[in-house]
Amino acid sequence: MKQVTPFLLVLSLALVAPSLSARAVPCVLTGSWINDLGSIMTIRALNGEGGFTGTYRTAVTATTNKILPSPLQGSQHQPNQKNHPTFGFTVNWSFSDSVTVFTGQCFVDEAGEEVLKTMWLLRSRMDDIKDDWKATRVGTNVFTRLQPQE
Fold it and tell me: How many Cβ atoms from other residues are within 10 Å of residue 72's Cβ?
């Protein structure tokens, strides 16, 4: 009976380990991402407090100005605390008088791919307080990791 116990232990670990490792895969924010509209975002390395900077190049805009890459700044929960961290960042648009704040969470889907699920608020500058009602837009975006070109 004692000879069977190590075998059962090894067998149970072999059966359980794949499901444990799939859940333990962390989602990492750093790198380049593309969203469902074709906008591209690059997030640089996180600092010790979870802060980060990067750039955002939108694929869509309501302005007729030339689209330029815009700076972003944000923070996330420490990556060693959770495998699927929440985060937030602000984009200060370089080509218009508006700013967008994003909030979201980093996930790893069933196929092992990283996905950023986000919601955003865009605030446009208005010339008159009477137009304040139309100054803020809300939406959602899903980002996937942008694979390097070969």
Answer: 20
Flag whether the pTM goes above 0.90: no
How far apart (Å, rounded) are the C-alpha atoms in residues 127 and 141?
29
Residues 118 and 103: their CA atoms lie apart, in Å, by 6
CB-based contacts of 37, cutoff 8 Å, min separation 6: 58, 59, 60, 141
Nearest in space to 117 (alpha carbons), one of 104, 129, 99: 104
C-alpha neighbours within 13 Å on the C-beta side of residue 21: 6
111: tokens are: 């196929």
Phi/psi at 32 (nearest 5 deg)?
-105, 140
- Phi, psi of 82, deg, nearest 5: -140, 145
Instruction: List, for residues 10-23, the tens digit of each pLDDT value.
Output: 445 444 444 444 45
DSSP 42-94: EE----TTSEEEEEEE-S--SS-SPP--EEEEEEE--TTT-SS-EEEEEEE-T
Residue 21 · residue 56 · CB < 8 Å: no
